[in-house]
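WARN no homologs supplied; continuing
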Amino acid sequence: MRLSLNTVTVKERWGLADCIEGCARHGIPGISPWRDVLHAMGVEAAARRIRDAGLTVTGLCRGGMFPAADAAGRAAAIEDNRRAIAEAHALGARCLVMVCGGLPPGSKDLPGARAMVRDGLHAIMEEARAAGVTIALEPLHPMTCADRSVLSTLGQALDLCDGLGAGAGVALDVYHVWWDPDLARQVARAGSRIAAFHVCDWKVPTTDTVLDRGIPGEGVIDIPAIRAMVEGAGYAGGFAEVEILSRHWWQQDPEAVLPLLKQRHETAV
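OK structure emitted
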């Protein structure tokens, strides 16, 4: 697999223009922007700069966040996802990654929140198919169920994909699925529906369950074993996208971080 840089990995030090130039300078062939840095640069300008640099857009982060306390909030989320689809199309992104959203404020209705996710996804699928944008559902670790994603397992994600039909796939992030005892069976079930493969590591001890991810090789995840599952299932994306949310790594000089990512990509992925 080739290496792709998710821009959140260096978010505190570099904007999108820096990331594009840094990837080109360090020989990293893929990039996956988050929408905040994309909007700061401008979609058209970013698409042009990425094309000029010869980079592959392995994904756009993120759509989703469908659950809301009222109908107006749910409608606003659907409209934002439609904008995200248009942005992914403009970039030529291989997928739009979906972080589907947690419980609405004050709610304890988990089945209801999951129904909002399902309904929101169905509302945007026709537009995504028309734009040629793959909707990649990313299951997140159960620790984030309340506030970030009620979609917690690859099996749940694939059940949704079964109902959504063509144009629906999954983004598999090792940080969120490595613990799953059913992982091998569900990866095989996913097959060619794996639209993105994200890598980082789970540190022991972990001081923050969201913002203390490790660089591959820094923790306990057997990334090569999961990569073998993914490749054996038929993943044809050809990229391993490094996505590290870490207060520690955000403070480091990206000019030093990117060569380290390349080295770990060779030895730990």
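Strands lie at 2-6, 30-32, 56-57, 60-64, 96-99, 135-137, 168-173, 194-199, 239-242.
OK
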